[in-house]
Every structure is written in structure tokens, then in C-alpha cells.
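Batch manifest line 344
LIGAND: WQD
JOB: complex structure
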Amino acid sequence: MAETVLVTGGMGYIGSHTTVEFLNKGYNVIIVDNLGNSSIEVLDGIYKICGQKPVFYNVDVTNYQQLSSVFKSHPEINSVIHFAAWKAVGESVEQPLKYYNNNLGGMSNLLQVMQENGCQNLVFSSSCTVYGQPDVLPVTEQAPIKEALSPYGFTKQVCETMIKDVIASNMSVRAIALRYFNPIGAHKSAEIGELPNGVPNNLIPFVTQTAYGIRKELMIFGDDYNTPDGTAVRDYIHVTDLALAHIAAIERLIESRNANDFEVFNVGTGTGNSVLEIVKTFEQVTAQKLNYKIVGRRAGDIEQVWADTAVAERELNWTAKLSLADSLESAWKWENNYRKNIEK
Ligand code: NAD
Ligand code: WQD
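JOB STATUS: finished
ARTIFACT:
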């Protein structure tokens, strides 16, 4: 019998790519998503890639009755990947309660419903943001958790603690928190990708929208950092590689290969790239000239971070395979495909 995985937030950017990889591997996928930051058309994209659709429920994970009834209808659910959350760092500073209600309320409700239904395996979307500006690079899972730079970042720290606390209270759940670095790119088919609302905050959607002519120019936030070219450095990971890390994590739990009931893994490439390197690589792989100018630093940005991926490689038997060029090419293909479709 094929295993069934419940994917909360499965209509979103990372969730949809993860759903595709699970369906391709023969898993049954059930998505719960309230479409608060995604659209129903994502199901068509998944169908075009996989030739099948996941089961979909328009459910809010903070709603106990709704979430509970999904588990009651599907007693076969024994594994959950929890993506559902708000994720805009700047918005979380302006509207912290929106983030605390959704990200913490959703996590608490999910743990409760999992417990009531004897559901054992949980993979949680955490973030490298929990490290703040690490003292040592590459950053390992042992690095101290720094004071959060935003309410969003704080919700990731608290969710990890919530999971740890309920496991310590003898709840029969085992969990893996994956600390993502900077996910970018899109499925190679360009049928699914990132759908930022309004003006993008993240670098890559801003780059592709500028190249497409939607934005006048990219503003590079700061060239006076203590980095080789002065611009900030991040670990950019292709979203398909990231999706595959979820399969490795779920299979570790299903096969009881976990060393502890709560484990944490960095999910990055292990390489840092500067903003200027992103611009140059984008120009090379897409043959597009990008308008940009250097402006001042963005408040709240850290200088540089990239992952030590040794633990994920050893324990999950997973490593990022796609290059920065692959990621940027796929992001550009997605931007073009998406614009053509909405201009029709
Ligand atoms: P996304 O916004 O594209 O996807 C999140 C999905 O969750 C959306 O489809 C949204 O509609 C849904 N959702 C939100 N609140 C919900 C609720 N209460 N009930 C049901 N559905 C709800 O975001 P993403 O980039 O795919 O991120 C997925 C997860 O990974 C998030 O938890 C995010 O914090 C985390 N993460 C993202 C990044 C990143 O840079 N994209 C980095 C690190 C961690
Ligand atoms: C990358 C680099 C910017 C836009 C955020 C969250 C983090 C995680 C991933 C969820 C930075 C620079 C950006 C622009 C620029 N998400 N930049 N011009 O800030 O590393 O991380 O997403 O957990 O929590 O904070 O990602 O893509 O916004 O920025 O120069 O228009 O690009 O300053 O150095 P960031 P980003």
C-alpha cells in the first residue's frame, strides 16, 4: 500500500514542488491549504506535471473542526509536512499578531489533531533565519539560536520549541525540522513556481520581474558588507532539491531511522553567493541584461550566511544537485511562462 502524506500549505511555492516529487514517487498526497497565499490553478500545474492531482481540502490549519475532520476522513494519514504559514518578514513586523495567530496557532492545532488521531511523523518547515547572523560560517545545526530579527523569525523558533515540548511530554510524535536556506527557482516544466503578491521582497522574483520589464531596476541593498564584492551573501537552493529533502526526511521517519524523536537539519547547498554573483549568473544563463543600481542596506538584513550540510548529507543521504545556473534559468522560464498565461 502506498503511504499517504498530508501536506499543509501544499498549494504554495515549496509545498507544490514537494507535492510533485511525492506524487512522482508513488505516494498519495492530501493537501490542506486555505489559499491565503496561493491559487487553485496550482492543481492544474501539478496535474500537467504528474498526470494526477492530489486530494485537496480548502481548510485553515488554525481551525480545529476543519483539520480534525480531514484526519477523521483519512485515517491512513501517518505523516505530515507542515508548510502552512505566513512568510513575509516585513509584514510580520507591521502585523505581528497576524503571524503569531497563524503560524503558532496552526502549529499548535496541528500537533493537537495529530495527537488525537495517533499520527506519528512530522516534518516542519523551519528556516536559517533562526541563526540570525551566525558567528561561524558555514553555519552548523549546533550554532546558537540568536534573538529573532522579526516576528516571522520568532515564529520559526517557537514552532521548533513547541514540537520539542510536546515530544518531551510523551506525545508519540517524532519530528524533523528542516532549516531551509534561500529557496529559489521553479519546476523544470515551468508549470509551477513562486507567485509573489505585489512587489516582491525576495531577490529572485525581483530579478526576473525586472528582466521581464515589470520593474524598472533591481535595487541591490548594500555593497559595503564585509564580503568579497561587498554585497550580501546567501545560500540559494533550488526548490526541487529542497522538495527532495522532504522525501528523505519523511522516509527516515517512516522507516524509523531517526536517531532522536526531534531532529534538525540544514537544507542548503553549502555555497554562499553574493547578490552581484546572482546578477552576473542570471545575465549569463538567460542572455538578459539586468538594470540595477546599488542603494543602501535593507534594515534587518544579515551580512552573510551559508549552510554546513554535512549532517543532512550523512543522515538524510541527501545533497543539493542543481546549480545556481539551473535555478536561475528555471526561475526565468517560469516568469516567462506565467506572464504569457496571464497576458492571454
Ligand atoms: P507560500 O506562502 O508560497 O506557501 C504557504 C502556503 O500555506 C500557501 O499556499 C498559503 O495559502 C498556505 N497557508 C498559510 N496559512 C494557512 C493556514 N492557516 N491554513 C492553511 N493554509 C495556509 O510559502 P513557501 O515559500 O512555500 O513557504 C512554505 C513554508 O516554508 C513556510 O512555513 C515558510 O515559512 C517556510 N520557509 C520558506 C522560505 C522561503 O524563502 N520561501 C524559507 C524558509 C522557510
Ligand atoms: C536575499 C539577498 C537582500 C531583494 C528571506 C527571509 C528568510 C528566508 C528567506 C523564510 C539579501 C538582497 C533582495 C532586492 C536585494 N525566508 N536583495 N534587492 O532576506 O536572505 O531571506 O527569505 O524563512 O527568513 O528573511 O532573502 O531574497 O529577500 O534577499 O539586494 O530587491 O538579496 O538584501 O542580501 P533573505 P531575500
